[in-house]
């Protein structure tokens, strides 16, 4: 059988002259091909997930280091304020102002970040996606 006929048959065309056995063989060939494609797709996605988890872990570690630096700078600032204003001269309002302008997010810096492969969820919404500003 010429290559072009086989190609057309793999695409589901020109099947009228084929016997049941030929159709079953074609079906088996397509199933095996599809299985190979799915295995390769899974390998590629698994590798991407591993790479993203590694990147996430590195970013997480960098975030921890940056928070350590922020805390060190805060400590140095507090010591400088004590030298400038004296230990009891900073009023409560100034102290709160200095605290709220710094980064004061409380969350677990040591919590692991893991990505997983999952099937997409179809969410139907009556309203179209609109970006809200402000």
UniProtKB/TrEMBL annotation:
UniProt-listed InterPro entries: TF_Kbox (IPR002487)
One protein family per Pfam: K-box
GO-annotated molecular function: DNA-binding transcription factor activity
Entry-linked PROSITE patterns: K_BOX
One of the record's GO cellular component terms: nucleus
Domain K-box, first and last residues per copy: 1-76
Name of the protein described by the UniProt record: Agamous-like MADS-box protein
Source organism (scientific name): Sesamum latifolium
């Amino acid at each position: 059988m010429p290559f072009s006929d086989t190609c057309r048959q793999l695409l589901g065309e020109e099947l009228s002259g084929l016997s049941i056995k030929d159709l079953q063989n074609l079906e088996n060939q397509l199933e095996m091909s599809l299985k190979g494609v799915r295995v390769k797709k899974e390998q590629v996605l698994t590798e991407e997930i591993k790479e993203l988890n590694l990147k996430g872990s590195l970013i997480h570690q960098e975030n921890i280091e940056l928070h350590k630096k922020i805390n060190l700078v805060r400590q140095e600032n507090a010591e400088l304020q004590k030298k400038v204003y004296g230990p009891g001269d900073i009023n409560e309002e100034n102290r709160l102002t200095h605290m709220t302008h710094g980064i004061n997010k409380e969350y677990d810096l040591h919590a692991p970040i893991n990505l997983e492969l999952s099937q997409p969820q179809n969410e139907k919404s009556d309203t179209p996606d609109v970006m809200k500003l402000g």
